[in-house]
Amino acid sequence: MFQSFAQPPVGKNLLGERFARFAKALKGNGLDGYIISHADAHQSEYLPADQERLSYLTGFTGSAGWAIALADRGYLFIDGRYTEQASQQIDPDTFSTVDVVMSGPTKWLKSNLKPGHRVGYHPFYLTVSQVRNFRKTCKTAGAELVSCPVDLVDQIWEEDGRPAPAKGRIVLQDIGFAGESAPAKLQRVSDHLDEMNADAALVTLTDSIAWTFNLRGSDVVHNPVALAFALLRKNDSPILWVDGEKLSNTVRVALSEIAEIEEISDFGASMERISNANPSILVDPDSCADAMRIVLEKGGATLVEGKDPVVAMKATKNSIELDGMRRAHLRDGAAMVKFLCWLDQQPAGSLTEIDAARQLEDIRRETALADNSQLQEISFDTISAAGSNAALPHYRVMEHHNAVIEDKSLYLVDSGGQYQDGTTDITRTIVIGSVDAERKQRFTQVLRGHIAISMARFPSGTSGAQLDTLARLPLWQSGCDFGHGTGHGVGAYLNVHEGPARIAKTGHVPLEPGMILSNEPGYYKPGHFGIRLENLVIVEEPQPIEDGDMPMMGFETITFCPFDLRSVEADGLSDEELAWLNEYHHEVFEKLVHTDLLTPEETAWLSRATSPMMRKSHSK
Fold this sequence. Notes:
By secondary structure, this protein is an alpha+beta fold.
């Protein structure tokens, strides 16, 4: 299994003991507080085991959060997705939770710092922008932000047997999947550096490095990336800092043809040496660790602040990558149909959330093999959520809280696979037995929002924030909403979450043809049920519209799997929405049947699941 369910919560006594040792270290370093982020030196969303500092000290295992620890108490900053999870995991005697939306770490410090306070941080785990904001806040309060050479959490963690660093092997991503050679990508970066009047770009994001050099790794759970740093130079070969033990002779030779390879342990010393030549280096203040700024400025380099140039290049997929993503989604769609057919055959109350998650992973693996492919990983921990657990958007099932999938309820499964030709991410909400009118109404409203995004046409320059309202409007009209973004970027056999574009209230980056985004509106009634419906879509080139004034972009849906019509109120759909649903289901059937991956029984199930839906009353 790629996913483990056996992580019990850390005992409150042990968390209390850890905090006591941390407080002692805090005092020993002359500090009044310390800032801890959920990050490593690469600002990864998912972290190797030895980088889970926030989890080690607080017990909280969510994928986003902050902590500020004082000598007598700590404060954990999380959003509403994690409120219940945090309440079950932290020690309330040592940590309190703070809603990060209402009061983020910077705002909290502004209200709680006193003149003379000294607040520490480790410069490798906070970005240039983050440190700049924290320093400004401290200065305003008459306090001091202190860069600590040794991380205080690491200091006490080493005493407890901290996990060993990740040692995943590095492999090359063949041009047949990448669609563009590494030298061609490096030339594109060089051209960008020329425009920015910079000699080089320091790249620290693992997926940016993986894409640029056409390599993949396994250092980070579920993300096919390797821990590395790179300096992409305008007039010279790039430098790639990586653990040499991860490179086979074949990979080392191939990379050596396009880059200078140095040990990642020498990164700091190398950057200091490079800075002494006074180059101008492009750094992204939102992803570059403050430690790197310190080394570069101390050595004499001129910093040119700007966005990591690879992020935008990587987000716009080429034709080979798009074809690979389409293939991966047909394979994954067949696996989902196999799973849903199997699920329908199980008596209500006979399965747990873990039973279902394990079965889905097994089916993905078997389906990939039948398609002459391989499930390399899952793209994130499967959200297998029964009943009220589905009301937690980022619910993670574990053995110590594994619910039964009961009759007359909704079951939500959000999952994905990593294949060499693509990354998938799909959510379906399934009726177990039958459900009441309220659940049908909300399901239909979520589906209408999903369809609105799928059918949207929009001019060049449109951002995700401008489209986000379309997904929410059916819920807004009933006084409801959902608390997460409508969609995120997705990598091509890379990270399942990638920038720079997203469909959300905060998604202000214009959408570009070739970008792949999720379309996943939802609805969550705490303590009762949750609904989310997710497909992936490709942003299409602008096309003319009959009698229109300008060409418009739109979305190509690449996820093929039926929605559960047992929860849909046909009378709640407009003629246009009902037509889209029936056309989509027709396409699902035609595409998946022709994969030759379904059994006759599964094909019969799919035929029933995609039968045209008819309205009971008159047309709207």
